[in-house]
Amino acid sequence: QVELVESGGGSVQTGDSLSLSCVGSGRLFSTSHVGWVRQAPGKEREWVASINWDGVSTYYADSVKGRFTISRDNAKNTVLLQMNSLRSEDTAVYYCTASGVYWGQGTQVTVSS
Q1: Could you report the per-residue pLDDT of 15-46, keeping only the tens digit for each?
Q2: For 69, which of 2, 47, 58, 78 is 20 to 30 Å away at the CA?
Q3: How far lies 7's CA from each of 23, 42, 92, 96, in Å?
Q4: How far is it, in rounded angstroms, from Cα 20 to Cα 72?
Q5: Distance CA 10, CA 74 (A)
Q6: Which of 102, 47, 109 is nearest to 77 (CA)?
Q7: SS (H, E, C) the chain
Q8: Closest C-alpha among 66, 79, 76 to residue 33
Q9: Pairing relationship of beta strands 107-112 and 10-13 according to DSSP bridges
Q10: Does 56 have pLDDT greater than 90?
Q11: Which residues are CB-contacts of 36 (< 8 A; sequence separation ≥ 6)?
């Protein structure tokens, strides 16, 4: 069992930065592939970024490549998503998921021009 709690969302302007945090509980978290998925109003969930269990490999959607950075600190059971150069189309609820099985409650990111 893994419990995930996201934080760090908020309302910002175009071009600003935000850092999202996902803190996991349970021994499985540190050995899980963790990803961020977002859902904008009226749209389907969209995969954003993933990181493997030891942080060596990272993956990004084309829409965020070069602007977002995913990282993890297994000693703190934390996965971060650093989001730079935010755009209005980044507005969504951002969810953290461990292995696509466990999900957090989500954190809202709103980007306005």
Answers
A1: 999 999 999 998 889 899 999 999 999 999 99
A2: 2
A3: 8, 23, 14, 10
A4: 12
A5: 25
A6: 102
A7: CCEEEEECCEEEECCCCEEEEEEEECHHHHHCCEEEEEECCCCCCEEEEEECCCCCCEEECCCCCCCEEEEEEHHHCEEEEEECCCCHHHCEEEEEEECCCEECCCEEEEEEC
A8: 79
A9: parallel
A10: yes
A11: 20, 22, 47, 48, 49, 50, 70, 79, 81, 94, 95, 96, 97
Count of residues in the chain? 113
Both structure tokens of 13: 């302007």
Rg value, the chain, Cα: 13
**Tokens coding 108:** 């809202």
